[in-house]
Design a protein that fits this description.
It contains 14 helices and 15 strands. The protein is of the alpha/beta class. The protein has two domains: 233 residues, Rossmann fold, CATH 3.40.50.300; 128 residues, no CATH class. The strands form two sheets. A nine-stranded mixed beta sheet has the order 3-4-5-2-6-7-1-9-8, sandwiched between helices. The chain has a six-stranded mixed beta sheet with strand order 14-13-10-11-12-15. Helix 5 packs parallel to helix 7. The protein starts with a helix and ends in an 8-residue tail after the last helix.
Length: 412
């Protein structure tokens, strides 16, 4: 049988040559693997918010799910399991959230968890005085989506001790949830009423520019793998414990045999690879700010610049070295400060009648096309838009998604 001692004794070469997957191991053997193990330290700190993010399938969600069950077993405290979208707390997903082996480990033989109408029920059978078996059901937790916060006002969540928001960082290309953090706080307020509540949040390292990071005062860009920080919430009252978890090489090998994603295997940020801005050895250029945009969720400004570049190369013709002049034009995206704004084209959340300000992407792009003959969409599709770094590209991705999905009612 595989033991933790045997697993940890494996060399890097032995790990790479290991012909095993998780499915080849029993539950007891899987428990011996070097999963993420730092949660208890963060929990014992007493922080109001415990935030974990890192590579996928490294055990961080498992330890939280186990905590939800043990808090009910030991202290009779229920939980709320939350996701960003209603579709993520459907019956199929939540019915299989707690694995049978975990339920058995926490409560013993004969227990199961059923999910019915957004309620998790602990189920077991008890024998009465006449020897007849009766199914006993206890409500141990509830499910609630951030997107449905307005429909949960007035809902009673009795005796809840933990609010667990799973997958709080949206995936690349996922739809924007408008006013997400405001919805999250409203849902949290509904659950917290009459409860002494603590919040746990988990996510994979998809994007370091999450509205939750900003609102909780977390600088994800400064956290390296394995870093733990204890900070004060911007509200000046709540304590936040945050960790960027590390994935052991053995776990990486076992969970990433069918993928090349470094986010899954190594816990790297899942941000699209961005080419460096093209340049020649003796190139020089001029840049003109085309349009600016403010991303309200992460409070960042980006600017799109039109760059004209020039350089000289030398070719040999008829035994003579001849200079050849070159010129090219392309778009560059850079992160800018609030003071740097375009004179003509601005995406903003402020309601204004100024001709150079827009709250919706399409009219702005159409105006740019009409007045400058620059088709930004076409340039993007042809790969002629460059970023100064991958983080700026991530901001631009969120800006594009945000202003492309603005609710028309918000413009009135």
């Amino acid at each position: 049988m595989w033991t933790r001692k045997k697993f940890l004794a494996l060399t890097e070469e032995e790990i790479n040559n290991l012909k095993l997957t998780l499915d080849d191991l029993t539950y007891e053997e899987q428990k011996q693997l070097p999963w993420y193990s730092g949660f208890d330290k963060l929990w014992d700190s007493g922080a109001d918010y415990v935030v974990l993010f890192g590579g996928r399938s490294n055990g961080k969600t498992f330890v939280v799910l186990k905590k939800l069950l043990t808090q009910y077993r030991d202290f009779n405290k229920r939980f709320v399991y939350s996701r960003r979208w209603k579709e993520d707390i459907n019956s199929m997903a939540c019915a299989t959230l707690f694995k049978d082996d975990l339920i058995k480990e926490v409560f013993g033989e004969g227990y199961s968890i059923k999910y019915y109408r957004q309620t998790f029920q602990l189920v077991h059978e008890e024998e009465d005085e006449k020897g007849k078996l009766h199914e006993i059901k206890e409500d141990i937790g509830y499910a609630a989506a951030v997107s449905e916060a307005k429909h949960k006002k007035g809902t009673n969540y009795p005796n809840v001790g933990i609010f667990f928001l799973d997958e709080f960082i949206d995936m690349q290309g996922e739809n924007i949830l408008a006013n997400e953090y405001n919805k999250f706080e409203n849902l949290l307020s509904t659950v917290k009423r009459a409860n002494n509540l603590r919040v746990i949040m988990c996510a994979n390292t998809v994007s370091k520019y999450s509205e939750y990071f900003t609102k909780l005062g977390i600088n994800a860009d400064s956290l390296e793998k394995g870093d733990v920080k204890y900070i004060l919430h911007p509200n000046g009252k709540s304590k936040v414990a945050v960790e960027r978890t590390v994935t052991h090489p053995l776990i990486s090998h076992l969970v990433s045999t069918l993928t090349s994603s470094s986010m899954i295997s190594e816990g790297d940020w899942e941000i699209p690879a961005i080419d460096e801005i093209p340049s020649e050895e003796n190139e020089w250029g001029e840049e003109r700010l085309l349009f600016t945009a403010y991303e309200p969720n992460i409070q960042k400004y980006i600017g799109m610049f039109l760059r004209n570049s020039y350089w000289t190369s030398y070719e040999v013709s008829n035994f003579l070295t001849v200079p050849v002049e070159h010129e090219r034009e392309f778009l560059v995206i850079r992160e800018i400060d609030e003071a740097t704004r375009s004179s003509f084209y601005n995406l903003t959340t402020k309601k204004t009648l100024a001709n150079n300000c827009y709250q919706y992407l399409q009219p702005l792009l159409q105006l740019i096309l009409e007045q400058t003959e620059i088709d930004v969409k076409d340039e993007l599709l042809k790969g002629r838009v460059f970023c100064d770094n991958m983080h700026t590209a991530d901001i631009f991705n969120q800006v594009w998604a945000y202003y492309n999905t603005v609710n028309i009612r918000r413009l009135l």
